Structures are given as structure tokens and as C-alpha cells.
Amino acid sequence: xxxxxxxxxxxxxxxxxxxxxxxxxxxxxxxxxxxxxxxxxxxxxxxxxxxxxxxxxxxxxxxxxxxxxxxxxxxxxxxxxxxxxxxxxxxxxxxxxxxxxxxxxxxxxxxxxxxxxxxxxxxxxxxxxxxxxxxxx
Length: 137
Ligand code: 5GP
Ligand code: ZN
Hints:
Layout: H1 7-12, E1 20-23, E2 27-31, E3 41-45, H2 57-78, E4 82-86, E5 102-107, H3 124-135
Antiparallel strand pairs: 1-2, 2-3, 3-5, 4-5
The structure holds guanosine-5'-monophosphate (5GP) and zinc ion.
């Protein structure tokens, strides 16, 4: 299914041009227009899935296998010093385009970027509580 109002559906299916670095029958990989670092790319499925929860399992495995393949290729060709794989779901998590995508972010010494979080300091009981909730106990 495609969504007529979705810009990533249009880019993934070639209706809007993009700097494509990989394409197959399921995915297109494009350069991000607002890159965090040189070579920042996005893996886009050609079908519309809003987020990771909607992505079927076989697409999920294909997408992450492709992420590994692209990261390996980019690491070799762009001589990266490191690599971040980022995948946002929901506004609060930083998702701005509601068509599933994986960010491939090459990292370089002194690139000035910081991708991370402020570590919390949970007590052992707080960790045990969240463990119980996730396990459904
Ligand atoms: P999100 O914040 O949803 O995880 O990531 C959306 C990403 O898409 C951003 O990094 C943004 O720069 C990129 N982006 C948004 N619109 C376009 C576009 O039209 N073309 C390309 N190539 N990238 C886009
Ligand atoms: Zn879409």
C-alpha cells in the first residue's frame, strides 16, 4: 500500500527525485537532505508503514540486513570512523516523517555531532519494577 499524502512513499517509488545510493524491489536508500554528517542516508520501504510496529517481520529483517550491508559499504567507501543506526518511532522519539525509515549515520572524528541520551540512575527496585511490567508479571 502507498499513501498518496506521504512524501517518503513518493520518494521511495521514484515520483520525487532523490540522491539514491541503493534500490531493490522493496527498498530505496537515499541521502538525507538535512544530514547529521557526510553521507547520512535513509532506508525507505517502497510500501507505506508508519513505524516499526506496523512493519511486517519479513520487511523488518530485510531492512536491518540492508542496514548492515549499507553501513559496511559506506564505512569502506567514505572511510568513516564510526557509525550510528537510528530509527525513531513517535513524535516524542523525534519522528517527523511518519513513514518507517532507518537512519544510517556515518561518524567521523571531530564531526561535532552528539547522538545520545542523559543516563538515568534507577534503583534496583525501579529496574525490577520495569522488568516485571515488560514481562507482564
Ligand atoms: P525522522 O525525524 O522522522 O526520524 O527523520 C526524518 C528525516 O528525513 C530527517 O533527517 C530529514 O532531514 C529527512 N527528510 C525530510 N524530508 C526529506 C526529503 O524530502 N528528502 C530527503 N532526502 N530527506 C528528507
Ligand atoms: Zn509512506
